[in-house]
TrEMBL record:
Pfam families: HTH_21. This is IS3 family transposase. It comes from Photorhabdus heterorhabditis. Coiled coil: none annotated. It comes from the Bacteria. PANTHER family: TRANSPOSASE INSF FOR INSERTION SEQUENCE IS3B-RELATED, TRANSPOSASE INSO FOR INSERTION SEQUENCE ELEMENT IS911B-RELATED. InterPro entries: HTH-like_dom, Transposase_IS3/IS150/IS904.
Length: 152
């Protein structure tokens, strides 16, 4: 717009572009900060290296290690200017199998006491028999009078 103002008046150009004259003059006097641009470039590099998971604190520490003295709030503003947001990976979801396995059916079905009496159910893991042949796991849920469970 500055090179157009040589030919036409600023008032007419601002009216044509739907910009107030005060906003034009503020923008024309604004000086581009080279150090800020360098920090933005380095910020984008570090952000992409972290695959979008680094936040303002992590990026601040990484910039300081690179020799750029910067605070967390400045990093936060620069991230907002660059439209960078920290995205954390989701948590692990356990697979829910609707049907029972044919190879190894669930015979316990969380009934750790056999047939309602106080005889515990004993079971072992065949995968560990070659390591510890004497290892047997005792799965027992024993209730006490106050409703709490005792540990064995």
């Amino acid at each position: 717009m500055t090179w157009l103002s040589r030919r036409w008046s600023v008032t007419d150009l601002c009216r044509l572009l739907n910009v107030s004259r005060s906003a034009y003059y503020v923008g024309s006097r604004k000086v581009i900060d080279d150090s800020r641009l360098k920090i933005k470039v380095r910020l984008r590099e570090l952000y992409s290296a972290s695959r979008g998971t680094a936040g303002s604190r992590t990026l601040m520490h990484q910039l300081r290690e690179a020799g750029i003295p910067v605070g967390r709030w400045k990093v936060r503003r620069l991230m907002k200017e660059c439209s960078l947001t920290s995205r954390q990976p989701g948590g692990h979801r356990y697979r829910i199998c609707p049907e029972e396995s044919v190879a190894s059916p669930n015979r316990v079905r969380r009934e750790f006491l056999s047939h309602g009496n106080r005889i515990p159910l004993w079971c072992g893991d065949i995968g560990y028999t070659f390591l510890r042949p004497a290892m047997v796991f005792k799965l027992m849920k024993r209730g006490s009078r106050d409703g709490q469970y005792d540990r064995e």
